[in-house]
Design goal:
- By secondary structure, this protein is an all-alpha fold.
- The chain has one helix and no strands.
- The N and C termini lie far apart (about 170 Å).
């Protein structure tokens, strides 16, 4: 009976040692997992900060794009107005050249008439 108790005691101690090893291994693994979790949390914070920065940049770029589009539209309207004004001035120039031609022809005719007198 005593031998049985000793054998059981030995096996119990052996099992206890094995379980303590397992506990130590699990504690070490838990420590590593905790460190990994902390690193992931830090990485997440950095990624969120980068994302926020990117969102701000996107917003600012969108504002600049809208401003550029508005400026382009205004420039196109100005070009159209200037083209219309150029056409008007060209028409006026042709009209004035025709007037000058008519006056010049009139003056020439007057000189020719004076020459015959």
């Amino acid at each position: 009976k005593h031998n049985n108790l000793e054998a059981e005691s030995f096996r119990a101690n052996e099992r206890a040692d094995n379980e303590e090893k397992k506990i130590s291994e699990l504690e070490e693994e838990l420590k590593v997992v905790g460190q990994n979790l902390q690193q992931l949390e830090v990485s997440e914070e950095k990624a969120m900060a980068r994302e926020e920065t990117y969102q701000k940049q996107i917003y600012e770029i969108m504002l600049r794009l809208k401003a550029a589009e508005t400026q382009a539209e205004n420039s196109e309207m100005n070009i159209q107005r200037l083209n219309i004004r150029i056409d008007q001035i060209e028409d006026e120039l042709i009209h004035e050249k025709l007037k000058i031609k008519a006056i010049s022809d009139d003056v020439d005719g007057t000189f020719k008439q004076m020459a015959y007198i």
